[in-house]
Design goal:
Strand order of the largest sheet: 15-16-17-18-19-20-21-22
Low-confidence stretches: 1-69, 73-77, 378-383
Structural class: alpha+beta
Number of strands: 30
Number of helices: 16
Mean pLDDT: 86
Radius of gyration: 29 Å
Length: 699
């Protein structure tokens, strides 16, 4: 502790010293618990199998005695990975203090950089990676700074199966990182009794915190177990690296993570719900920051974090102390809920003046409602390109047509909470064809890990349900009920309703769009359609196969509607017609055209995350409706692009590189400006912004 207070670079030394004094009692309690546990049983040791070898089944290996502080031995590093050199100098010492970025985080918080060009395409702190030689006799470049992965966990089945999947992908990415990977050591820090995973996964087990500590919030075990661990000889013996990465069991490693931390700067991820700019959450945090402005609090949590060991030693006691105090404070407990321990960390870091580099590429945490794209990015603080960690804290829920479900379970559901009582089974069923990218990535990484662990005899005999619960749902039923009338409404042009002759657009999936906002519709038989548009509306068309007009009733009022005459060409085109395709790229064009026609409403803007104008619809005959009137679209010869002409502007549309059915790449030709078309979804945010429920209709 004295060492931490004197060498924790980037902290105010006086503040750290005060913190050491303030938490001496806490440390003494933790040390007493650890000592008592150590005396109850000898530490258990076992060697983990190398990535390519089958492991001994847990039932064949005696578990350590309950109550022991047990440490499974760290496996020998893969033969090709260069072990950390204790004598190697940390080149980050030459970089100077953290640099204040000229860019603000999306919530307006400041950001700090390890080197001035850290946000550029070729940052100096990562330049060494290009110098790694394939010749094993050549030393690793001086810029390499290994770190130790500490996976905080508990011993429930729920966290055990997550741990197995994490460790599978850790070993895979460690090997893929090559001999000079910085991802070297590994320890599972288990809060609880030694368990059957210890023979195959390097583990240190410490006593689980009691209810007097957690008050029913078991996540406090993370700072509690870390507080015990940093004071144990196992920490000094195992953590030979100068840096650590604090991981969670629901992290999926997609690549080996570069170490961008320094002795004065930790690396974290921006969580929107951790923003000190939020009046309520930030206001409560300010009460716990007597000498610091809440605006200086890093909007991060304690995981994923890359941090120097000295900074970890300095922040952990206060992180633990504040987590306990916040839990006991009714106002903070009510406001922070499941995030409470994260706020404990961030407030502790702010009080100790520990700065953070918020690096969004380190992680992505998607749901069906947001952050579904991994292979591209929209703006500085949008989901990162090719993130290193997939954090599956939120479930991904879809209907069978690929529509996301928010606030409930989808027909296709992948959520860790589905597997509290039993692990996921092998061969999870694939997402719907129109599901977006993140769900497919998660599904693929689960199937890979579970499949290989099953072959090695390391998975479970009893497993839970698969990802798909039934073969039909409301989306497929709506599609089946469309009939000839429904297909004509979505493909034959825009309609006009009421005395105002307001545009009315019908789309597949039972959605419609007007100037008053969005609604729903359904063919109820013959020539009748039921709509929800500022209330219930019944439409009766003049024909089920070639409709041109309709009568409607709404709340005791009656009126009429007609097909928009401007779309006569669409109405006259054969039902299965599409613009002619005259190039070898017909396949790509056909995919784009099939995505556009009938689906919607489409919104056009710079990026879904920043919003755009809604009200675009694509019909047969090469006709499109836009907020500015009628437009034309056509496939370009010898190109994968579809050209959209709106007034004097021309846009090129393509779906290459997009996973899912509800987004399209757009390039505005007059200035080559990159844009997007996307389908807004009701009650869904971020990628799908642009939907609003109808209101104030005048029918």
């Amino acid at each position: 502790w004295q060492h931490a207070s004197s060498s924790a670079a980037g902290s105010d030394r006086a503040l750290v010293r005060q913190q050491v004094q303030r938490t001496a009692v806490v440390a003494a309690e933790a040390a007493a618990v650890a000592a008592a546990a150590k005396s109850s049983a000898a530490a258990a040791h076992a060697t983990a199998a190398p990535p390519s070898a089958s492991t001994v089944a847990a039932k064949d290996t005696p578990a350590p005695k309950p109550g022991a502080v047990a440490a499974a031995a760290t496996p020998a590093a893969a033969a090709h990975i260069v072990a950390p050199a204790a004598e190697a100098r940390d080149v980050a010492l030459d970089w100077g203090p953290p640099t204040l970025s000229s860019k603000r985080i999306i919530d307006g918080s400041p950001n700090y950089l390890p080197v001035p060009n850290a946000e550029g395409l070729a940052p100096d702190d990562m330049a060494w990676r290009k110098e790694v030689s394939s010749d094993p006799s050549v030393p690793c470049p001086a810029g390499r700074r290994p770190y130790h992965t500490i996976l905080t966990a508990q011993g429930s089945l729920y966290q055990q199966w997550q741990t197995k999947i994490f460790y599978y992908h850790f070993r895979k990415q460690q090997a893929a990182g090559g001999r000079c990977t910085e991802m070297t050591g590994f320890t599972r820090l288990l809060a609880g009794k030694p368990d059957e995973l210890m023979p195959t996964i390097p583990t240190v087990a410490v006593p689980e915190a009691g209810h007097n500590v957690t008050r029913g919030f078991p996540v406090i075990n993370r700072p509690w177990s870390m507080l015990l661990f940093i004071d144990m000889k196992e920490f000094r013996e195992r953590i030979v690296e100068r840096y650590v990465y604090i991981a969670e069991t629901d992290h999926l490693l997609r690549h080996d993570i570069p170490n961008r931390a320094t002795p004065q700067l930790a690396v974290g991820y921006f969580f929107p719900y951790m923003s000190p700019k939020d009046p309520k959450s930030g206001g409560i945090a300010q009460k716990w920051l007597p000498d610091t402005k809440v605006a200086d609090m890093p909007p991060v949590g304690p995981s994923p974090i890359l941090i120097h060991v000295d900074l970890l030693r300095a922040v952990t006691p206060l992180w633990y102390e504040l987590s306990r105090k916040l839990k006991r404070d009714p106002e903070a407990n009510a406001a922070y809920g499941w995030m409470l321990e994260m706020w404990g960390y961030s407030i502790a870091a702010a009080r100790l003046k520990i700065k953070h580099f918020v690096w969004q590429r380190i992680q992505i945490e998607p749901s069906a409602a947001w952050h579904q794209t991994l292979s591209e990015r929209d703006g500085d603080w949008a989901p990162a390109v090719d993130p290193f960690i997939y954090h599956y804290t939120f479930g991904v829920e879809y209907l069978l047509d690929g529509s996301p479900v928010v606030g409930g379970k989808g027909t296709w559901s992948l959520d860790k909470r589905n597997y509290f009582g039993a692990a996921p089974p092998p061969d999870l069923k694939a997402p719907p064809e129109c599901a977006q990218e993140a769900g497919r990535v998660w599904w693929g990484m689960f199937n890979e890990a579970i499949g290989n662990l099953t072959k090695e005899g390391q998975w479970y005999g009893r497993t839970g349900q698969s990802t798909r619960s039934r073969t039909s749902d409301e989306s497929t039923e709506l599609e089946a009920a469309m009939g000839a009338l429904g297909k004509e409404l979505v493909d034959g042009g825009q309609w006009l309703i009421g005395n105002e002759k307001a545009p009315l657009q019908f789309f597949r999936r039972g959605k419609l769009w007007t100037k008053w906002g969005g609604g729903t519709w359904r063919v109820t038989g013959g020539t009748k359609v039921e709509m929800q548009l500022c209330g219930a509306v019944t439409l009766t068309f003049d024909s089920a196969t070639a409709p041109t007009r309709f009568d409607y009733t709404a709340g005791g009022r009656a009126g009429k509607g007609v097909r928009d005459p401007a779309f006569a060409a669409a109405a006259a085109a054969p039902p299965d017609a599409s613009p002619p395709c005259g190039s070898a790229a017909c396949g790509s064009q056909a995919r784009t055209l099939s995505r556009l026609r009938g689906h919607g409403p489409w919104a056009l803007g710079d990026a879904p995350i920043s919003g755009g104008r809604t009200g675009y619809a694509f019909y047969r005959g090469g006709m499109a409706a836009t907020p500015d009137g009628v437009a034309k679209y056509r496939p370009l010869p010898d190109s994968a692009d579809v050209e959209l002409s709106i007034g004097g502007d021309t846009f090129l549309l393509r779906t290459e590189g997009i996973v899912g059915c509800y987004q399209v790449h757009v390039a505005r030709q007059r200035d080559k400006h990159a844009m997007k078309l996307w389908v807004p979804m009701r009650h869904v945010s971020m990628e799908y912004t642009g939907w609003r429920d109808s209101g104030g209709c005048k029918l």
